[in-house]
Amino acid sequence: MKSVNILLTGNPGVGKTTLIQKIIAQINQPAIGFYTVEIRQGRNRVGFEIVTLDGQRGILAHQDFHSSFRVGKYGVNLIDLENIGVVALQKGLQSDSLIVVDEIGKMELFSQKFQKVIWMILNSSNPFLATITKRPHPVATRIKARKDVQLYEITKSNRNEMVERIVAEICSNKPI
Fold first, then answer.
1. Order of strands across the sheet with 128-132?
2. Banded pLDDT at 2 (limits 50, 70, 90)
């Protein structure tokens, strides 16, 4: 039987990553996956780091990274995404763990390996918690349209109350 597929969307900077971290801290079950954090030099964002829940780190994108895959001023590093992020997700599929992805966005969706593992997770029995781009993207739009996805739009006004609601949903293993 399929567990929950919970996707969080919202504008950049609204607190989706922080929300994911709070949810993980409150659930009483193993979680495998990754989240992204900004790389800053002083007050300027220069890139994004990928951090697995077991502490592995890599560069997802950086303004100094030369790549044919670009989002704005950032070159996307598919090698670290696939060797760190996708590998963590594949490990999650081999367990009964909650699988966490922050985020399913334009940078990550350049990777065919990432796309493949996301579809595998969505079709698996593992509970799944992810953030997903709010902007239109062909793959993200198909994911959000699935009948087995619970999609929540996170705003500054609802983000705190959403922690309890999503923790309850994951723990009850059924939509509320």
1. 70-71, 74-76, 57-62, 44-52, 31-41, 98-104, 128-132, 5-9, 149-153
2. low
